[in-house]
Amino acid sequence: MLRDAWTLGARTGTAALRPVKGGYGAARRLERRLRDDSMDLAGDAALALLDAVLASPRADDAVDRILASPLAEHAVARALSGDLVDVFARDAGRYAVLERVADRLLEDGLAEQLVQRFLDSPELERMVALTLESPGMERVIARVLESKLIEETIARLVDDTAARMPERQALWVLIDEVAQSPAVTDAITQQGLGMADEVADDIRNRSRTADAWLERAARRVLRRQERGGGSPPATPEPNLP
Amino acid sequence: MSARAGPGPGVTSPASNGAAPAAPDLPPAAVAYAGLVTRVIAFVVDILMIQAVTWVVGAVAAVIASMLHLSDGLETALVAVGAVVATLWAVSYFAFFWVTTGQTPGNRLMQIRVQDAGGGTLPLGRALVRVPAAVLSALILFVGFLTILVDSQRRALHDRLLRSVVIDAPEPGRRRPTRPAP
């Protein structure tokens, strides 16, 4: 009984307060709409004002004065000396700002244009000439060439090239072509003939030496026999020593 | 002493020996004769060439004969014919070069030349006879060749028999090998 009485009372109260609740909701919606409209109006007014300021011929003068003022210099100095640079560097690395900017530049072709313009500029040629003619560059190149890294790199490059060369069919074709060229065959022939001539000359010289030695020995033997056998010959053999 | 510097062993002038004038392509003042060692080397080179050809031809003939299945008697006859052909080949080899240029390939290598004692190349008959005469000189421990060591013109026995000499014949434009002084 008591519960039924309580339920009936609640329903009756709710029905009685329903108009009040609807009025409150309508007042909330009206307030929100007015606030949004006022914000839009204020934003549009601010943008219109900014456009008017930017379009004003005084704007450039104002910006120039601001940038030329000690205040701007002071502000930049404070910004660079403060934590802003560190924060910017940290956040730039964290959010890959540089990579994104670089990708965007590459996609738009701006980087290519900048590089092309830089390469075409006479300043680059002048800078390169000055750099190459400087004694410092000469010392740097000398140190680089004398460094162990260069030596090891060249040695490894030569080893790799030498190891891979026999595998190249084109190399053997080139060797065959060179070996069969008339100039090479003529040179080899001439060299072979020259060597054969030298060997033949040496053999001839040695044979002549041996001829003379044998004849001296034979004459010594014959004289000894002639002395032991009797009288010497009446007339010596012509041209014998 | 150089061979051209003056008379020495194996170097005579036509006036001194009275029999052998200089060859047409040599200076008339002196003729240098080839010694024993030089002639032996040239002879060995020639023998090697002759034997090389003989061995190759003989090997080819033997292969062909083995494929024909010849009888023993016919094989013996072919061997005899081959020996005769090899002998003729050796004789004709020397005779041909002595008659034509006076220089066999071995002689050309050693820059010597076989020629008539009076100059010029040997006639064919004497060239043909000189080969068996050289064999005759080789008999009895090569005594016929040893006369080269003592003869004023460095002549062997067969050179004396056939009136031939072996002289130095350097190629034109090339220096003559220096001969040491005795």
Chart the SSEs and their pairings.
The complex is a heterodimer of chains A (241) and B (182).
Chain A: H1 2-55, H2 58-68, H3 70-81, H4 84-94, H5 97-108, H6 110-120, H7 122-133, H8 135-146, H9 148-164, H10 169-179, H11 182-229
Chain B: E1 11-12, H1 14-17, E2 31-32, H2 36-68, H3 72-100, H4 105-110, E3 112-116, H5 124-146, H6 157-162, E4 164-168
Helix pairs in contact in B: 2-3, 3-5
How would you characterize this protein structure?
Chain A is an all-alpha fold and 241 residues long. Chain A has eleven helices and no strands. The longest helix of chain A is centred in the first third of the chain and has 54 residues. A two-stranded antiparallel sheet of chain B has the order 1-2. Chain B has a two-stranded antiparallel sheet with strand order 3-4. Chain B is elongated, with a radius of gyration of 19 Å. Chain B has 182 residues and is mostly helical. The termini of chain B are close together.
Number of helices of chain B: 6
Largest interface summary: A-B, 23 and 28 residues
Mean pLDDT of chain B: 82
Number of beta-strand segments of chain B:
4
Distance between the termini of chain B: 8 Å
How many helical stretches of chain A? 11
Strand content of chain B: 5-15%
Fraction of residues in H or I helices of chain A? over 70%
* Percent in helix of chain B: 55-70%
Q: Summarize the main sheet of chain A.
A: none
**How much strand content do the residues of chain A show?**
under 5%
Order of helices and strands of chain B: EHEHHHEHHE
Radius of gyration of chain A: 55 Å
On the 0 to 100 scale, the average pLDDT of chain A is: 82
Lateral strand order in the biggest sheet of chain B: 1-2
Query: What's the SSE pattern of chain A?
Result: HHHHHHHHHHH
Query: What's the shape of chain A?
Result: elongated
Q: Would you count the extended β strands of chain A for me?
A: 0
Distance between the termini of chain A: 174 Å
What structural class should be given to the helix and strand makeup of chain A? mainly alpha
